Amino acid sequence: MADIITAKNLSLGYERDKPVIKGASFMINTNDFIIITGESGSGKSTLLKSFYGGIDILGGELDVCFYDLNKIATRHLRALRQKLGIVFQDYRLINEWTIEKNVMLPLMIMGYDKNTCKKQSENLLKYVKLGHKIGKYPLELSGGEQQRVAVARAMSHNPQLLLCDEPTGNLDEISSDMVWDFLKAARDSWGACVIVVTHRAPSTLKFDFRHFEIKEGRVIERH
Length: 223
What we know:
alpha/beta; 10 strands; 27% strand; ATP binding; transmembrane transporter activity
């Protein structure tokens, strides 16, 4: 079982003398499902940002997909991000594009031909039970449907690592359950390591996961 993320004495923050994450050390494996919880402002999203190079490291070491985030070159950061899928709480879909084209976007950026992009998008939208709305635009969908499009988009290029920032924070219980099911499938069917930041792990989850809690800047694994 290989490590996809390794952190050693990692410190993160937006001001050098005020770290949000303090001296964190942990390892995440390629087939893990990780849930990160903590109070608002505890540093959950800060930690998630560090995994895709969205924040500078104040101290310690962080390796993601065998890239050293301490001294990563711009071209290598681009290569790393092609191995990642990211799902945000506010969906971040392009409202002027159909949902089919939104799901195609990562593949288009990576240079795949139009037919490959289209077929993958169609397959994923069917999988998230939106195949019948393929020509619709994001604002024609409910919040839960938009988030399912966002999950499909994040999975379109078969990422090694799927990062999710409060993916069910704005959704009702039924929509939330569907999103959790799709995230589980991302690990079980597509082989992605899944990391989800959320206020608390749902008590209804019927699969194994590792639970990290951020408390006073420390990253603690709960068993």
